[in-house]
Amino acid sequence: MVESIARVRHIRVTPQKARRVIALIKGKQAQEALAILKFAPQGASEPIYKLVASAVANARVKADASNQYLDEQDLYVSGAWVDEGATRKRFQPRAQGRAFKILKRTSHITVVLSTPDELTDATPVAAGSKKASK
């Protein structure tokens, strides 16, 4: 089982908008996720597209380093989340000497790709592990 992680930090996309795009690709196949992101109209889809492509490349490098066969069609998005980054605060002058606060939010986005684990279907259940039903 190959698992690769790609992260981008301090990206200038609000976490709320990035989470909308991440929800489109969770659980999807990596190539399908790239196709969805390529044509998604949201502004956050471009940096997330690059992030998923980077995770695919990371999986390829990791598989080559460990002499494992990797079919990129088997990769799927097993996890993806958006954390809130640092917020830059700016002020805009308003009428009568007031100031208007502008919050420029950033995000930390993480994407985890993995191949399905074939061993989970083939492992037999131990006889003593089942609980007795009453």
Task: Report a brief summary of the structure.
This protein has a 3-stranded antiparallel β-sheet, with helices on one face.
Secondary structure layout plus pairing:
Layout: E1 3-11, H1 15-25, H2 30-39, H3 45-65, E2 76-84, E3 88-93, E4 99-104, E5 107-114, H4 119-122
Antiparallel strand pairs: 1-5, 2-5, 3-4
The whole-angstrom Rg is 21 Å
Shape: elongated
Summing up helix and strand content along with how strands pair, one would put the structural category as alpha+beta
Summarize the amount of helix as a percent range: 25-40%
Figure out the total of helices.
4
Strand order of the largest sheet: 1-5-2
Largest sheet: 3 strands, antiparallel
Q: What is the subunit arrangement here?
A: single chain
Rounded to the nearest angstrom, the distance between the terminal CA atoms is: 38 Å
Task: Give helix and strand order, one letter per element, not per position.
Answer: EHHHEEEEH
Strand runs, count? 5
3D architecture notes:
This protein is an alpha+beta fold and 134 residues long. Helix content is 34%, strand content 28%. The chain is elongated. The protein starts with a strand and ends in a 12-residue tail after the last helix.
Keywords:
single chain, 134 residues, alpha+beta, 3-stranded antiparallel β-sheet, two-stranded antiparallel sheet, 5 strands
